Amino acid sequence: MTEAKRPAAKPSASSKIGFWLMVPIIGPIAAAGAGYAAWKTNWQLLLKEFFTGPGRLSRILLLLFTVLNWKNMPFAWTARIFYPIYYHHYLRRAPKLGPRALFAPVISESFVSLLETDYNIHKSNSTYFADLDVSRTHLLSYICGAGFRAVSSNLTNQIVLDPTTKQPPKGSFGIMLGSVHCSFHKEIPPYRGYEMWSRVLSFDRKWVYIVTHIVPKGLGRPTEWLDPKFKKLNRSSGKEPVKDWEKKVFATAISKYVFKLGRLTVHPAVVLGESGLLPERPGGWLVDDASPVEDLPDYDLFSSIEESEWDWQRVEQRRRAGMKYAEKFQALDQLQKMFDGGQGPIVGRFGPG
Is 241 exposed, middle or buried (0-12, 13-18, 19+ CB in 10 A)? Predict the structure, then answer.
């Protein structure tokens, strides 16, 4: 797998600063700084003054407010994003789970804080997108960790070659979000817990499409966990699905990511293949999507399938089934052409926004 496609767009800031090199540096420095500060602090005196000193009621109320709304505190979003990256790449690397994991979901949990609610006293629509950032980060860091590390060391591994120079391209590995669409089905009240089930929907020559279902905690009842670490959680095995579960979904979102090496767009199959998620395919996975392919067997898309049965035809069928939805999502990019550059009549200008 050595093909890459050169885009017209310039690399983003994250690729310029070498994001994947910053994570192992910033994390230990921040942890060391926090640890040193904790070691030098007289906690007994500090806690005594905090809970018994003058003004204690206001401090306690502020602490309680912060704990109940920690998701919306300054830099909380950054911490929520860096945690899965650091954990899945440096603290506990997931094993290569094989092709069965390619379209399987990863579950992340959250709740609705008071600061996330709108005037209807339920979760504001705008706040879903921050949660989606966290859920997608867990998914890709977990199932694609091996591929990310391999492509990040491309100068050594020479997995991706510049099609012009036939040499490994210069620049850092980066992951960029292209767009997100979210459909809202049911409101979520304050301090209600929920789960985000994110999985790969499909991929093409440029994009990886991810679908996320936001559902009540406990709605899903997994019958199997692919990572042996979680097999002890198989308490719901054999239980019947929750009645009318389709009507209980809070929201459904679809997102698309592109992988970059400097200015080059890396074919998603390169990263997925290096992560052990793609079985061997005649001619490889970098074939043109428009080229004719043999007729595929008619598999049951959602049946329980053993690892040995996940051949390239079954994966390709799942990929094509997902593309039926992804193509409609992709078509929304054409809406930018409907902007006329402000050449027509304007209603007005208002602020602040």
Answer: exposed
Dihedral pair phi/psi, residue 150, rounded to 5°? -65, -45
**Dihedral over Cα of 91, 147, 129, 109: its sign:** negative
Predicted confidence (pLDDT) per residue in 117-134, tens digit = 999 999 999 999 999 999
Question: Where do we find the tokens 């809406």?
Answer: 335
Q: Based on DSSP, count helices (H) and strands (E) in the chain, helices before strands.
A: 10, 7
Q: What is the DSSP letter of 118?
A: -
Distance between CA atoms of residues 12 and 263, nearest Å: 9
**Pairing verdict, β 4-5 and 264-266:** antiparallel
Do the beta carbons of residue 267 and residue 161 sit within 8 Å? Answer: no
Question: Which residue type sits at 38?
Answer: A
How many CB atoms are closer than 10 A to CB 282?
8
Q: What pLDDT digit, counting tens, does each position of 77-128 carry?
A: 999 999 999 899 888 888 888 999 999 999 999 999 999 999 999 999 999 9
Coil, helix or strand at residue 219: coil
Cα separation of 208 and 51, whole Å? 51
Q: How far apart are CA 132 and CA 111, in angstroms?
A: 13
Structure tokens at 100: 């069965």
Q: Within a 10 A sphere around the Cβ of 10, how many other Cβ atoms?
A: 9
